[in-house]
Amino acid sequence: RPIIFWHRRDLRLEDNAGLYRAQKAGGPVMPIFIFDREILDKLPEKKDARVEFIHQSVTELAAAYQEHGSDLRVFYGHPKKVWKAIIEEYQPGAVYTNRDYEPYAKVRDLAVKDLLEEAGASFHDFKDHIIFESDEVQKNDGGPYTVFTPYWRKWRTILDSRMSQFEGEELSYYLKPYPNTKYTDRLLAGKSDRPVPSLAEMGFAPAGIDIPPTEVSRKLIRTYDETRNFPGIEGTSRLGIHFRHGTISIREKARRAMDLNETFLKELVWRDFYSNIIQSFPRVVDAPFKKDYENIPWENNEADFKAWCAGKTGVPIVDAGMRQLNESGWMHNRVRMIVASYLTKHLLIDWRWGEGYFADKLLDYELASNNGGWQWAAGCGTDAQPYFRIFNYDSQQKKFDADYTYVKQWVPEYGTPDYPKEPLVEHKWGRERALRVYKEALAEA
Ligand code: FAD
């Protein structure tokens, strides 16, 4: 009975924790991937850049296996139905995979685990997507951290101690690469009887969006702390989409960050932090982390929301950000914070509306980081500061895009009579309204 290795958000053969465990368990290991119709059928747009990216990455993964005399079996359907068919056809003895912490994935995995156990097969999942899981970085009293800075300090201490404690292939691989290619003789040999379906066979078409490379120059990482806040320059890694789908290893990039730039490492740790938050507090997926914030009387003005989505608020940096998102599927982090603050504070629109819009548009969309970023902006998240941090878009403009390079790149009509003279909601008035509304709502909570 073969061991099946199920790829999900780990579309690579190298440095793959779960695959390594499957290889070490014996073999032959039969790698698979499932295009999930529960997700694909709900996508409104058939030219979807993320589907195209996954398709391309799965094709490259299959080629990587072929280079080692093995192959990837690729299925398309509803996971439970696909698994029933796999169990019948291949009769696996065990299934190995890497853990996915999102609520949908957890429910799906439990259902698959049940199916396998009924068929006498075991299910094994491993940590691969992040560096530490929520039970690894805990406060001294055993509880989860809810504020980033102390979390980061503890994370760093734990990493240092684990790295000096363990050596060798079989032990903890904190930042060491898993040597998957050393054991390719354990992979099931021969060609796949389930080749990668074409995009068209699944009802999709290429969207034609540029995907950033998986490698980043040493120089960019070295100078990241100086460049990362300026949206007009290419000062960040653009690796988000690759972390999301595991086309690169988080361990490898963290290792590099440790050598080159501590600030970059810290950003990677934000990703662990937000993942840990949804693991410890799954309720935050659709509710505020700070429960008192449930009762904010949002304005939720549909026309304002539409203007924000389209990049037509009359605030240059907000408009530039939203247009960058709409046109390229990515927005600079500094500007994500500014547009999110404008939506939730100045326009008084529920953070979940913005979160949903980002979820539809971002190529690097990651539920935990997106939710964390939005709740941080709305003031209801894991933030030491409560609601009164309200970004002043003019000072942000002056500080981070003083010569309007970024604004001009995305808002060509800026500075012409076609651009609105007044913003939808002006800073001072909007700030005072937000402070009043938040304060009153919290006083009643
Ligand atoms: P870099 O600056 O090069 O950082 C490297 C990597 O570190 C990123 O790819 C990402 O994996 C991680 N990282 C950096 N900053 C953060 C952060 N604040 N939180 C979590 N991880 C971080 N990030 C996502 O990956 N997916 C999202 O859906 C997402 N939504 C966001 C929504 C809002 C409102 C805000 C304020 C931030 C959001 N972020 C999200 C965090 C951050 O903006 C992006 O990770 C970053 O801009 C991606 O660009 P980059 O790959 O060039 O990042």
TrEMBL record:
UniProt cofactor note: Binds 1 FAD per subunit.
GO MF entries: deoxyribodipyrimidine photo-lyase activity; DNA binding; FAD binding
Matching Pfam families: DNA_photolyase, FAD_binding_7
Superkingdom of the source species: Bacteria
Annotated residues for binding of FAD: Y224, F264, E267, L268, V269, W270, R271, D272, F273, Y274
Entry cofactors: (6R)-5,10-methylene-5,6,7,8-tetrahydrofolate; FAD
Site (Electron transfer via tryptophanyl radical): W298, W351, W374
Record-annotated Photolyase/cryptochrome alpha/beta domain positions: 1-131
Swiss-Prot/TrEMBL keywords: Chromophore, FAD, Flavoprotein, Lyase
One of the GO biological process terms: nucleobase-containing compound metabolic process
Gene3D superfamilies, per the entry: 1.25.40.80, DNA Cyclobutane Dipyrimidine Photolyase, subunit A, domain 3, HUPs
PANTHER family in the cross-refs: CRYPTOCHROME, CRYPTOCHROME CIRCADIAN CLOCK 5 ISOFORM X1
Family stated for the protein in its record: Belongs to the DNA photolyase family.
Protein name per its UniProtKB record: Deoxyribodipyrimidine photo-lyase
UniProt source species: Neolewinella agarilytica
Lineage of source species: Bacteria, Pseudomonadati, Bacteroidota, Saprospiria, Saprospirales
